[in-house]
Design a protein that fits this description.
- By secondary structure, the protein is of the alpha/beta class.
- It folds into two domains: 4-326 and 408-442, Inosine-uridine Nucleoside N-ribohydrolase, Chain A (Alpha-Beta Complex); 355-389, no CATH class.
- It is built from 15 helices and 13 strands.
- The protein has a seven-stranded parallel sheet with strand order 4-3-2-1-5-6-7, with helices on both faces. A two-stranded antiparallel sheet has the order 8-9.
- It is globular, with a radius of gyration of 22 Å.
- Residues 346-350 and 373-394 have low confidence and may be disordered.
- Pfam families: IU_nuc_hydro.
- InterPro entries: I/U_nuclsd_hydro_CS (IPR015910), Inosine/uridine_hydrolase_dom (IPR001910), IUNH (IPR023186), Ribo_hydro-like (IPR036452).
- Residues 10-353 form the Inosine/uridine-preferring nucleoside hydrolase domain.
Length: 443
Amino acid sequence: MSNKSNRIPVIIDTDPGVDDTIAILLALASPEIEILAYIVSFGNTDVEACYLNIFKIYQAVGRHIEQHPEFRDLFPNYNSTRKPLIVRGPAGPLSGELHNAAYFHGRDGLSNITESHPEFNVPPGLLSTGTHPQLEISDRPGHQVALELLREHAPRSVTYIALGPLSNLANMLRTDATCVRERIGRVVIMGGALDVPGNTSPCAEFNFFADPYAVDEVLISPTTRLPLARVLLLPLDITTTHLLPFVTYTTRVDPTFAADTPSVAMGKTPLAHFTSAFLQRSRAVMLGFGRDAMELHDITAVWAAIAHPPGLEGTAPGWTIRQRFFKIERTGEHTSGMCVVDRRDGASAYAPGSNRSRVQAALESRIAAGLADASGFGPLKSAVVPARVEIENEPIRPGKDEQEGVPVVQATPGPEALVQVMMKRVWGVEVDKESLTPDWLLV
C-alpha cells in the first residue's frame, strides 16, 4: 500500500515516552500511512516535555538523513508534501488527580537525555520562530484540530491512533460527537489490562489509569462512546508479549549498547546514538524487573493501525480480534483505571468475561424466537448457554457499524514478525527469523 493515493491518513495522539518514540519512528518509516497531525498530551510526563520530544525525534531523523542520504527513502513520512500538524492536547485528565510515568520514562520522557545527552536538546530559537521545516506548528487546541482534520477528509477515511490517555478523544466527543461518529474511520487504542495484571498498579494499565473518566466516555458509556465497530483496543494482554530483546538490538544496531554505559556518538549513526541514549535507562529498569527486553506497547498499536485501514472487511492475515465487555473503575482507592470484567460464572456457564445479564437477555431472545428449548431455561436456571450466545468467544468482523462490546486484539502475526518489521524500517537492518529462537521471549 505504498501508492500515495492509498495511504492511510492518520492522527497520532501521543505522550512521547520511550516506546511512543519508537512507535513514531515506525510511523515515519511506514509508507502505508500519511501522518496528518501529532496531538501531544500529558501522560508519560508533562505535556510540555512530551511536546519537545516530537521535535527531538524529527531532529534525530534529520541528522541521520543528512549524514546518510541513502536512508532518506526509509522515512517516507519525514519530508511529507503536507507537513504534519503538531499541537498540544490536554495537560491533565477530565477529572481526578494528575499522574505520570516518569518512574520509567524519566522526567523528560526520554530517560532524562535532556541532562545526559544535551546534544539532543532542541535549540530554543527553532521553536521561537513558530516555523519548522517538517512540521506545522499550531497553538490551536488538539481536539479542535483533530475535528477539523476529520471534516477535511473523506468520511471514515482517517485513522486515529491513541498511544496515551484518551482525554483528547473524550474532548472531541464532548465538542462534536456527531462529527466524530460519522466521520472517523478507525480508532486504534493502546490501553487497559483485561486478564493480566496492570503495569502502573496491580490492576491498571497506565493510559487507562491516567484518565479513567475519558475511557468511560470514549469506550463504555452508551450515550457518549465511539462507534465500537471502528475501534481496535490493544491492552497489555497482547502488547506485553511483544518484545525487543536488547541482545538483538545490540547485535544488529549498536554493539556498544549497555545498561550501565551512556551512549556516545562515535562510530554510530545519529539515529542509533539517539535511540541508544534513551534506551540505556530503559534497559537498566527492565533488568531490575528481571527481563532484558523492551515491551513494544505503542509499537504494536501502530503496527495494528497499518494492518487495519478504515473499511477493511474482516481482519488482516494473522490477526484475531474479539469483542470484550468490561467497565472502567474511575474512583477506586486501589483500583482506579481497572478494567472490570464480569467473571461470575458457573461450570462453563458463560463465556469468559461475559456479562451475565447480557447473556441471559440473549438467551431469552433465542427462546422467544423459537431458537432454543425453554425447558429448564429461566432467569434462575440458565446453567448452560448455547455456543451461539457465547458472545465473548466469537471472533468479530470489523466494519459493521452497530455492535456491543469493544473489539480487542487477541493475536497478531507474532512478536518475531513485529521485530523484523521494526528493525528493518526504523534502523534499516535485517533480522532473520531463525535468530529469534523459541526462548527469545524469556530474555
